[in-house]
Amino acid sequence: MSARFGVLGALFVAASGGACGSSSSPIEPLEPGDGGTSPDAAAHDAGDAGPFHPLDMNDVTILAPLPARLGAPVLVKGTDAADDGMPFVPRALFDRVVAGSSATFDQAILPPDVHAELELVAVRFDLCDRPAPGVCPAADDGRLRLVFQPIVEASRGVIAPDVGFHAFYTIANTEIPVAVASLRDLAKSTTMARGGALRVSPALAAPASPEREAYATKLRAFVKRYGGESRIVRLTVNAQPIVFSQIRWAFRGVEKKSGAFVDMKIFGSDATDESVILNGDPAYEVTPATDAPPGLAGALSKAAFDGATDAQKRAYLAALAAIDNPMTHSAETVACVGCHASTVIMHARASGMFLDPLSVPGRYTSKWDLSIAGGESRDAAQTLRALGYLGTTPMISQRVVNDTAQVLAEIEARYPPP
Questions:
Q1: pLDDT tens for each residue of 32-82
Q2: Are 89 and 148 in contact (CB under 8 A)?
Q3: 407 partner at 20 to 30 Å CA-CA among 78, 102, 125, 323?
Q4: Which of these, 411, 306, 406, 324, lies nearest to 360 by C-alpha position?
Q5: Are the beta carbons of 404 and 198 closer than 8 angstroms?
Q6: What pLDDT, on the 0 to 100 scale, is given for residue 36?
């Protein structure tokens, strides 16, 4: 089993994830930075999102607990059929994103049987695809974003190796009100405390009960309604390849353009994959080299950061804050490594300067809880998992938290309380 994943995958298959700190309990069988609202929201007929019920961080981003055993997924498997009768993760797209197809990765980055091991570990809802920073245009289609990881057996239970697939599915603009109503109904269906920081779903991690199963059933119905091959528009992978001995990640993806899937280019280059090597504590070597936005390269390199002036260091930190701010950057304006490494790099670099990361200018602010204490991303240089698990340890990045808060702000503005 250990040869099937990268260095950390092998370690976690052997050690069951215990070396990574706290673990989640498996489940049994318009100032800069401020979250904004759309300027055309008032003029757009948003539709009926049903009876108002307040949503919180764990209602629009849902991190499922790991299953108690193999063969008992908490929600669905990647090979399961959605309501369109087709799988959530199409085999052809999986094969395409893991294939060896470039000078950087000339061998397959994962074995083919990983496809059958994929299980849904996180659900995200958004009002649009976020092609640009800022508020979603009111007329855009929405998105269901699902995170799948392989679930495998280790010496002390099941774990998720350092491999993740992020699938994006279209929710038609006319379907958004019904989707929001479904999320409100889902939130109303649990008595578990949902407020506070984003964390492993309180509703799904609760002790076994009819209420928990009813919640899981409703959530499965939601993802089956809006998922499936007929709706998928993008599939990306972030994984440790099996072909390298060092701690190294591959980023790659495909997206639908004019009815056909094409390889996605890494922002700032013509490359279609990105290699990231851990070469410090923490520091990362990125190929193709990137400094998008300016300052990212200086932040990623510990040597460059340590050799910089105080003013330069503060500029590097400001670049990280901007990367994590959905009002200033989107996935279309930052290289993959930016959003995935910013959390751990910000903490390490700011701490080294005896600075509070919350004091860095340009950071995102919100009335919702922006804490990342529900996961271990702040201190986990050995993974670039933005949302999901390393072994049994939950990972939640600052960018995911900020995105979640922004979605909540826009839902509340578009479908306000009475």
A1: 344 555 444 434 456 788 889 999 999 999 999 999 999 999 999 999 999
A2: yes
A3: 78
A4: 324
A5: yes
A6: 55
Which residue pairs from 184-190 have beta carbons closer than 8 angstroms and sit at least 24 positions apart in sequence?
Answer: 184/49, 184/50, 184/51, 184/52, 184/53, 184/55, 185/50, 185/53, 185/218, 186/59, 186/215, 186/218, 186/219, 186/222, 187/53, 187/54, 187/55, 187/56, 187/59, 188/53, 189/214, 189/215, 189/218, 190/215
Nearest to 232 by CA among 261, 208, 271, 195: 261
**Tokens representing residue 257 in the block:** 């353009």
> Cβ atoms within 10 A of the Cβ of 111, count?
14
Listed as own residue / partner, the contacts of 53-56 with beta carbons closer than 8 Å and 24 or more positions apart are 53/184, 53/185, 53/187, 53/188, 54/187, 54/417, 55/183, 55/184, 55/187, 55/408, 55/411, 55/412, 56/187, 56/194, 56/195, 56/196, 56/368, 56/408
**Token pair listed for 374:** 């529900």
Give the confidence band of 355 by pLDDT, cuts at 50, 70, 90. Answer: very high
What is the pTM (predicted TM-score) of this model?
0.90
pLDDT per residue over 107-162, tens digit each? 888 999 999 999 999 999 999 999 999 999 999 999 999 999 999 999 889 999 99
